Amino acid sequence: MTTTPAVVTLAGLDEGLLAPLLDGSALAVRVPGFVAPTAAGHMAGRLAAHPSLSAYRNTPELVRVGLSHYETHDADGTTNDAALVDYLDAAEQAMQEIRVCCAPYEPPLDRLWKALDASYGLERARIADTPMFAGVCRVFPEGSELLPHNDSLLRDAPGLPLGRELDGQLAANIYLRVPERGGELQLWDLRPDEAQLADWRAPASTYGADRRLVPPPACEIPVAAGDLVIVDATRLHAVSRQERGTRIGLSCFLGVRRGRPLVYWS
């Protein structure tokens, strides 16, 4: 294990994988080479060619395979009932199709979920009795970026009981293809409140902060294809512009509940 003030690097799926995030001693945990290069390239190519690859409903500069729960909200934060039905109805088929794109290799998120279940207990998140989708494939085209923001299920879905149960929210990202230049993961040791986020909001953005208004990030991680990186999603984070090339990865949220199993969703 190697450690910087912000990032803990592990050689594999250690039993204490999430400990530095849960105790607040690190902004990120990184497992380099979690997916072998040949496998990562194969998966990225299959996913980039998937017929359902399309833009986020409310963030059209980014594209994905599988729906994100974030897409079930309208610009004013209210739930779009039709979008929520689509999200839940498509969940099982989308997860299976992403697994097919990973074949003949083991789907890397399945591997991560098995390890987390063994160490912490893990359950798939549900809305009422319906399992949520988990394991979205996100594609960042050349020229795109992810503005500084944080994630909170309680904020994004105030009517969902699960949001009130969470003591923390992490985000796991598995990188299958990275750009030749740009696309660094940027992390801040900041948990801005809603008023601060509103003051920082970028013009025309539905989710992110104006980079000119926020302080410099605490660290930037130049990720490589095959890396697994888990971050505290409630802290400010961003992805710098993909200057040359495309970023493709698989991701999910991990909800922390003290004394209970983790939950996962996208």
UniProtKB/TrEMBL annotation:
Pfam families: WelO5. InterPro entries: Oxoglu/Fe-dep_dioxygenase_dom, WelO5-like. The keyword Nuclease does not apply. PROSITE patterns: FE2OG_OXY. Gene3D superfamilies: q2cbj1_9rhob like domain. Residues 130-256 form the Fe2OG dioxygenase domain. It comes from the Bacteria. Keywords: Iron, Metal-binding, Oxidoreductase. Belongs to the iron/ascorbate-dependent oxidoreductase family. This is Fe2OG dioxygenase domain-containing protein. It comes from Streptomyces virginiae (Streptomyces cinnamonensis).
